UniProtKB/TrEMBL annotation, chains A, B:
Signal peptide: none annotated. The keyword Transcription applies. It comes from the Bacteria. Coiled coil: none annotated. This is Transcriptional regulator, LacI family. Residues 11-65 form the HTH lacI-type domain. It comes from Goodfellowiella coeruleoviolacea. Keywords: DNA-binding, Transcription, Transcription regulation. SMART domains: HTH_LACI. InterPro entries: HTH_LacI, LacI/GalR-like_sensor, Lambda_DNA-bd_dom_sf, Peripla_BP_I.
Amino acid sequence: MTSRQRAATSVTLADVAARAGVSPATVSRVLNDSYPVSASTRDRVTRAVRELKYVVNGHARALAASTSMVVGVIVNDVSDPFFSQIVRGIQTEAAHDGKLVVICNTEGEPARELSYLELLRQQRAHSVLLTGAAVDDPVHLAELAEQGRGLLAQGGRLVLCGRPRLPDVDAPAVTFANHAGASALARHLVELGHRRIAYLTGPLGRTTTAERFAGFREQLAAAGVPLAPELVLSGGFTRAAGYDNTRALLAAGAEFTALVTANDAMAFGALAALREHGIDVPDQVSVAGFDDLPFCVDSAPPLTTVRLPLTEAGALAARLAAGREPVPFGGVVTLQGELVVRRTVNRPPSQPGGQR
Amino acid sequence: MTSRQRAATSVTLADVAARAGVSPATVSRVLNDSYPVSASTRDRVTRAVRELKYVVNGHARALAASTSMVVGVIVNDVSDPFFSQIVRGIQTEAAHDGKLVVICNTEGEPARELSYLELLRQQRAHSVLLTGAAVDDPVHLAELAEQGRGLLAQGGRLVLCGRPRLPDVDAPAVTFANHAGASALARHLVELGHRRIAYLTGPLGRTTTAERFAGFREQLAAAGVPLAPELVLSGGFTRAAGYDNTRALLAAGAEFTALVTANDAMAFGALAALREHGIDVPDQVSVAGFDDLPFCVDSAPPLTTVRLPLTEAGALAARLAAGREPVPFGGVVTLQGELVVRRTVNRPPSQPGGQR
DNA sequence: CTGAAAGCGCTTACAG
DNA sequence: CTGAAAGCGCTTACAG
């Protein structure tokens, strides 16, 4: 009454055994269906389970059998559709395996990637999926690799999703063909006649930022179209960053006939800023994003972008983690993007002077 | 070598104790900082932990200390912004408590609510948050209540979010003032002069559907504006349902000057359908949604809707579950919505004949 | 087909 | 401040 006044008492497997008049071992066997048990015994046990409303203790089971039901997913922000689409793919596969998915939000802080990885190791997670762009800080990457190796040594699995493999860690990666997607977008714009193109890169020092920008820049260079330094701005992968940077461009009097943002969220912000300035899209300025979030089809106007198979990527990563998908040669499978032409891109206005 | 050929061996607390030359009890004490330990002993232990790269086994800890780090969240679909906003609020609070958030996607299937609740009970979840509209099937509700009581009896906590309390279960609820929000919307439309209003209800037999529709209908009735039965359609809470039902309305030649949908996702679908039919919003037909998803500001046109404090609701529910927020009298706290007037609503066209 | 027993890796009174 | 010991609730060889 004193030391456990508010302790919640659960019925245990031993209680079930007593009620059914069998040994705990037998109860365990019918619960897990792991060994043959006579029908009558099984009946008595299942009845006792029902009568006592017994619920197995997952921690005890995990400890004794050294198994785990949890699949950890590390994301920047679950409420960002880019990530929630990936998470949905993972969820579906995890449910198929009877696993539980744990969401860890880093809010973009690399340090939290590390601490969540450790937390998941403590939980003896069956696997962890690390999603989103990686920061390319070698120190951080080394620490991540160290934790990753620790996870593997523990018997856990690790899969990267939307980022490259970790150095010296035997973990596969599902990546996106960011470079190719950005190239396709650049080509499309050039073919339509655009020569003054602005580009909002996303946050510096992230793999995704670098890959998309490189694809874009190189394609432009190949086509002999210069990319004016003053038309390239960086910021977060957010709508606010797209909005702010577009306003900054406009305030500086920059001239451009097309504006490409490294993701869709930024493009929505850009569209809003252009609208506020009374600039017509696509007649005065063309706009394009990247990702093809579900909402692109409903924006004003519907956004031209590069579609990435987000949900499929999550599902694939989960299957790789579950061992239900063979690990490809080289350990990385790259998913292609696809140019989706909607209403925000047009030929550049013919009159000189750009968007004005 | 045979029976454990691929068994992953982890370093245990006993290994750390041996290395540091102290007892396991002492290691546990420094790990948990639960009792005074001399500085020199503490140093030896922390060094051993580091050298051995020891990671505590959460299952063993949970079993011995009967504590749990997991907070379970049951949602219809994480990739639906309505839910991902709520989840984000929960995540933030959980991180504050050092807890891990487990996401369970029911895909709208009541049966999966039950099975996830049981899974969460197995994991001895610290608390579970049940979100989204409840189906008002008494049998299902009774089963849910039963599971809820079991969770409580186990020492877990339960909080409802976006749905009413469960019968005879001592669990608080965070609800939305759906009725009042829908009333406000109806009043706004009526004041602008709308008399022929269509309403897409969402799925039948859900609390949210019923509450919003009741608020809307009753306000209209109070204003003496009839709600024509042929202008009320039901379907899912999805963009597709909004699109399909709007097309159905149009195909049937229905006449209306305003179209209200029970949530924003449906409104986006409705806007698309109207656009395809060449009907101008808001000059020919006004449209309004409910929820105020982040994207509303970017739709074509920006959507008039009722803002719900989704993230705050999730955070509040999580704090209630953590015991960091006092449970209000009656066990339910209702969060108010707020009418957000944007660009999809206007006066009805003056010429007779509705939208045509 | 079934049981007794050891063990999974911790924590926590209890005793010094 | 520290250790020996029991116990948390399961599973799983090992023996029948």
